[in-house]
């Protein structure tokens, strides 16, 4: 992961943990694995998906390259490592899960590593969260203006890389069945501090200096009322299996 935005999240680890959404049960269920399965959460971040996997499977190993993110993972084995160099033996897991990260990888190298660590017939699940409607209540225009004022010039975030779909190309070359796609609705419920933290954890803002981020946080606190915010989401779930 050489893209600076891909390596930016450690600077905002606490905001990432506080503000980012979790995942619906379907993300774990789509793999079709039994409860005694051993699985890998690849590029696990602060463990948002790890927690769901721990509730479904007997053993979960979370691999994350960033020390500041990895230290926040709870209730699972953690290892330092990358998608391109997974620190696990050949054929050691029944499933590989990856949330909100595959678009940052060197896809061909990552897919080759996933194929290496998977047992025959093992599952791969790649997921991304996307908005499925407006936040209620609607954010005031003053808050939107703060965000635009602090947004780095030309910053578009990582979503366009997800939508471009080139991250999927590597699976066409590996020993995998064709990718399957489905969505699962869920809801992200936040208080105001959590909503602000989510904004500050976006890659473009994570690249700002700490002083700039704290100025932005203070400005958002001034214009956002203290209340509960509800955002409808859909988990975009891609899955496949390693051929025997």
Structural class by sheet pairing and helices: alpha/beta
Helix content: 25-40%
Q: Figure out the total of helices.
A: 11
For the record, the CATH class is: Alpha Beta
Describe the sheet with the most strands. Answer: 7 strands, mixed
Gross morphology is elongated
Low-confidence stretches: none
- Give the CATH architecture: 3-Layer(aba) Sandwich
Q: How many strands appear in the DSSP assignment? A: 7
Order of helices and strands: HHEHEHEEHEHHHEHHHE
> Could you tell me the mean pLDDT?
92
**Radius of gyration based on Cα positions:** 18 Å
Describe the structure.
The protein has 244 residues and is of the alpha/beta class. The chain has a single domain, classed as 3-Layer(aba) Sandwich (Rossmann fold). It has 11 helices and 7 strands. The protein has helices at residues 13-19, 26-29, 48-54, 67-70, 107-117, 141-150, 159-164, 169-173, 192-200, 203-206, 210-223; strands spanning 38-42, 59-63, 77-79, 93-99, 118-131, 180-190, 229-241. The chain has a 7-stranded mixed beta sheet. Helix 6 packs antiparallel against helix 11 and helix 9 (192-200) packs antiparallel against helix 11. The model has no long low-confidence stretch (mean pLDDT 92).
């Amino acid at each position: 992961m050489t893209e600076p935005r891909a390596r930016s999240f450690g600077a905002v680890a606490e905001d990432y943990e506080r503000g980012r959404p979790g995942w619906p049960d379907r993300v774990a269920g789509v793999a079709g694995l039994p409860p005694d399965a051993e699985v890998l959460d690849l590029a696990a971040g602060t463990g948002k998906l790890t927690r769901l996997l721990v509730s479904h499977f007997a053993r979960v190993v979370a691999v994350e390259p960033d020390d500041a993110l990895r230290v926040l993972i709870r209730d699972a084995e953690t290892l330092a490592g990358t998608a391109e160099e997974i620190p696990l033996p050949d054929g050691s897991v029944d499933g590989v899960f990856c949330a909100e990260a595959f678009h940052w990888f060197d896809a061909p190298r990552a897919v080759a590593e996933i194929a290496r660590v998977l047992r025959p017939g093992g599952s791969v699940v790649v997921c991304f969260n996307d908005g499925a409607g407006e936040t209620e209540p609607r954010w005031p225009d003053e808050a939107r203006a703060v965000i635009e004022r602090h947004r780095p010039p030309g910053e578009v975030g990582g979503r366009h890389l997800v939508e471009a779909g080139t991250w999927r190309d590597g699976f066409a070359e590996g020993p995998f069945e064709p990718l399957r796609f489905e969505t699962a609705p869920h809801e992200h419920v936040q208080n105001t501090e959590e909503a602000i933290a989510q904004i500050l954890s976006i890659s473009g803002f994570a690249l700002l200096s700490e002083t700039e981020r704290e100025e932005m946080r203070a400005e958002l606190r001034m214009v956002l009322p203290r209340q509960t915010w509800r955002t409808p989401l859909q988990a975009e779930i891609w899955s496949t299996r390693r051929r025997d």
